[in-house]
Amino acid sequence: MNYPENLFYTKDHEWISFEQDHALIGITDFAQKELGDIVYVDIPCLNKIIAKEAIFGTVEAVKTVSDLFMPVNGKVIAVNPLLETNPELVNQDPYGCWMIKVLVSLSDDRESLLTAEQYLAQIGSN
């Protein structure tokens, strides 16, 4: 499995990439493999402020639905438009296929985010 070291991770299997004035958020390679074939992504939170650890959407796979949890406090400023017609992109390229773009609040708590090494230790991979 692939876990880029320039990203941060959550215990709930989301990744976050901090850009200049925003962050991109998606799910990890581990999460997409556990879910299986993703058939639908529902993210109804555009232009809403979402609290850290609150649900910002769901991912539906062939046999299950999984909640998506916000890694930091922030306002959702974009939802990846490709996911509406091509949800399978999450399976094909979990780190290239961001789900939401967020303006991160000044009070975000980055200390609880995991490095790639810490995330690998959590999921039991080497």
Automatic annotation (TrEMBL):
Keywords: Lipoyl. This is Glycine cleavage system H protein. Belongs to the GcvH family. The keyword Oxidoreductase does not apply. It comes from Mucilaginibacter gossypii. InterPro entries: 2-oxoA_DH_lipoyl-BS, Biotin_lipoyl, GCV_H, GCV_H/Fam206, GCV_H_sub, Single_hybrid_motif. PROSITE patterns: BIOTINYL_LIPOYL, LIPOYL. Its cofactor is (R)-lipoate. Residues 22-103 form the Lipoyl-binding domain. The glycine cleavage system catalyzes the degradation of glycine. The H protein shuttles the methylamine group of glycine from the P protein to the T protein. The lineage of its organism: Bacteria, Pseudomonadati, Bacteroidota, Sphingobacteriia, Sphingobacteriales. Pfam families: GCV_H (PF01597). It comes from the Bacteria. GO terms for cellular component: cytoplasm; glycine cleavage complex.
